[in-house]
Amino acid sequence: MRTRRRNSMAGSERSVGSKKPLPPYPSRQLTILALCRICEPIAFMSIFPYIWHMVRDFHITEDESQISFYAGMVTSAFTFAEFSTSFIWGRLSDKIGRKPVLLMGMTGTGISVIIFGFAPNLWVALGARALGGFLNGNIGVLQTTVAELVTVKAHQPKAYTVMPLVWCIGSIVGPMIGGWLAKPVEGFPGVFSPTGIFGRFPYLLPNLFSAICVFIGVIVGILFLEETHAERKHRHDPGIELGRSLMSRIWGSEKVKEDKGKLPAKIISEEERPLLSENDELLPGYRTGSAQSASTSNTVSEQSFDLEEGGGLELAEAEKAPAGKVFSKAVVVVIISYGILAFHTMAFDSLLPVFLSTNPPEKPIPTKLPFRFADGFGWDTQTIGFILSVQGVYSLASTRLLFPYVANKIGALRLFKIMSVLYPLLYFFTPYIVLLPNSLRQLSVYGIVVWKMTFSTLAYPSNAILLTNSAPTTLTLGSINGAAAMTASLCRALGPIVSGFFYTQGMESGYSGLSWWVAGLVAVIGAWVGLQITEPKGRMDEKEDIDETTEDDPTTTTTPNENDPTRPSP
């Protein structure tokens, strides 16, 4: 009776005391991850302002109405190739770790953009884009890395805006660089000679800029990016050691020693690490009586249920989990919705610059509203590049400020369903802006861009959170996010091709809105799928429940340690 009363008193003291504090927000590693990631959206987005002009300069066709189809092929080559290898890269990251796969993907991007800049014809351009896709599976691996860095739901709305923020910055810098540096002989005739290398390869300069960004990202990743894989993150990393050595020369050894104590144990070499640290948990059969008493006095979440630290329990569950358990119905539905979202948003991204580049038809086609009309804007690359950069600036603000606020208010699930239902309206109204007077055209384009980016910055992070929370364990996140990236890559590859085909057919037949309305029909299907999404209790919910139960349930506490000074006297 006396022991039971002690247990009750001890449990009451813990429940009355302060809640277990949240782990610190992983701002340092998310920042480093962002610096590594920034090069890829710059490289990807920089081609959009000039791709139509680049394909035209290849002289693959004299019919300008066909150029959009070939431009869509070039845009899709990367994502279609990425589709074929994304799942493989995701599985590989489960085996060898996230960091080496990310670095290999970035290196592949750097090689491909250099080849693309030297492309003398359409086929070399297609091959360069495809090579970049084959060697890059970073979309899924990045999502996995973020999921492993963020261990509590309270940090998710903020953390899951980091990669979209990086993409937004790339959407600003990429189109700006592509628009201003393409054809430098024409843009800067006093600096670049028509007989020089940039005269023979007019689209090389923006790709060299992208390659430099990739090189910087690879260096940052090698020196400062830490592994997050549960098995691999405790292994010695020579790159991290080199980065610390360089920082000691810059900031001084005392500062680095101070920071070293704050860094996780994974940067300590295998030779320096003891076989069993003070915090390691002994297997039940090897515990002494005092060890059992001391270890059971800790909370369950600080022992074998620490899902983020990996441990043998999670590894065993991951190895035994059948594919049906990993790819549950909830996971599959979120992946399908992600693919549909990627299809119609990528269709928009590839259609908009083509829409703005298209010249009005030489022979006007009679307009018969509400559906029969054909016209174009005929804007140059610099104007389009500036518009796409403004799009990136707005999406940066929307991602940073709007999404965390809305997601915290209504939740990721409800937010994604609302966006799915409203998306079709965007595609229905967009083609009609070409009918507006010239004085209103540019303003209407900015309005459409703001509309689209608001929806994108709310929908994509919500879907990423839903996918992460549906995963049964962090050790399967690489495979799940790899499958999601593979699905999205296929849809991103098909989006520009399908939309480019319907855009060409629409312009020839007098229905310039045809491709937009096809994308809207796909968005309607996406709305139906989005409404089927559920958010089952996942590993993060289970961990929170374990923490609360451990704090509030006195029966989880064994007889206090005899040497505990806080133990109440008999």
What does the secondary structure layout of this molecule look like, with pairings?
Blueprint: H1 2-16, H2 27-37, H3 39-45, H4 51-57, H5 67-96, H6 98-117, H7 122-134, H8 138-149, H9 156-159, H10 162-181, H11 184-187, H12 197-200, H13 204-224, H14 238-251, H15 253-262, H16 289-296, H17 311-320, H18 323-326, H19 329-357, H20 381-410, H21 412-429, H22 438-470, H23 477-509, H24 514-530, H25 539-552
Task: Give a brief rundown of this model.
This protein has helices at 2-16, 27-37, 39-45, 51-57, 67-96, 98-117, 122-134, 138-149, 156-159, 162-181, 184-187, 197-200, 204-224, 238-251, 253-262, 289-296, 311-320, 323-326, 329-357, 381-410, 412-429, 438-470, 477-509, 514-530, 539-552. With 570 residues, it is mainly α. The protein is globular, with a radius of gyration of 27 Å.
How would you sum up this structure, described in words?
This protein is an all-alpha fold. The protein contains 25 helices and no strands. The radius of gyration is 27 Å and the shape is globular.
What does the radius of gyration come to? 27 Å
Number of helices: 25
Give the rounded overall mean pLDDT: 77
Strand content: under 5%
**Beta strand count:** 0
Q: First CA to last CA: what distance?
A: 11 Å
Secondary-structure-derived class: mainly alpha
- Spans where pLDDT lies below 50 across 5 or more residues: 1-18, 260-320, 554-570
Q: Approximately how much helix is present in the residues? A: 55-70%
Order of helices and strands: HHHHHHHHHHHHHHHHHHHHHHHHH
**What summary fits the major beta sheet?**
none
Principal-axes geometry comes out as globular
Subcellular location: Membrane
Keywords: Membrane, Transmembrane, Transmembrane helix, Transport
GO molecular function: transmembrane transporter activity
Biased composition (Acidic residues): 543-554
